[in-house]
Write a structure and sequence with these properties.
It contains one helix and ten strands. The chain is mainly β. A five-stranded mixed beta sheet has the order 3-1-10-5-8, with no helix packed on it. The chain has a five-stranded antiparallel beta sheet with strand order 2-4-9-6-7. It is elongated and about 50 Å long.
Length: 150
């Protein structure tokens, strides 16, 4: 039986902050751990989820997610599906390859701390086909998140 351990971490986080009080800004805050880990034992795909607070002083944000090279070890052209569900229910999805980039845009809640429970949900999905092509072992990747007001 094949076994894989997959780990993701938010390697770095860039928040566009204003130089002057009148400038626009955006922020991203993970509601829990910045690290997601799972074990895979050869059946079905996997889905890792976390809640994030995405805020933009303009009410609209641009989120760029940059993949690391860690998942390339799974398979030369390994792909992971990144799904973002914003606080207002808008769902966007894009494929992220090793060292690739995906960009999402959306509306942000009025509360910069998401105190009203207005979190977005970020999911990373990897299919059974992608996982099945990998050699048994441990794989780690880091994703970089860049957020800016639009």
């Amino acid at each position: 039986m094949k076994s894989l351990i997959l780990s993701y971490a938010a390697a770095s986080l860039t928040i566009a902050t204003p130089v002057m009080a009148s400038e626009s800004y955006a922020s991203l805050d993970f509601s829990g751990s910045r690290s997601l880990t799972t074990n895979w034992y050869g059946e079905d795909g996997i889905e890792l989820k976390t809640k994030v607070c995405l805020f933009s002083s303009t009410g609209t944000f641009r989120l760029e997610i940059v993949g690391g090279a860690g998942m390339a070890a799974l398979e030369r052209d390994a792909r992971q599906q990144i799904v973002l569900k914003t606080f207002d229910g808008q769902v966007q999805s894009a494929e992220l390859g090793a060292a690739g980039t995906v960009i999402f845009t959306g509306r942000s809640p009025a509360d910069s701390n998401c105190l009203g429970g207005e979190f977005a949900e970020l999911s990373i999905e990897i299919s059974e086909r992608e996982l099945g092509a990998a050699t048994a072992g441990q794989y780690t990747d880091q994703l970089q998140f860049l957020i800016a007001p639009v």
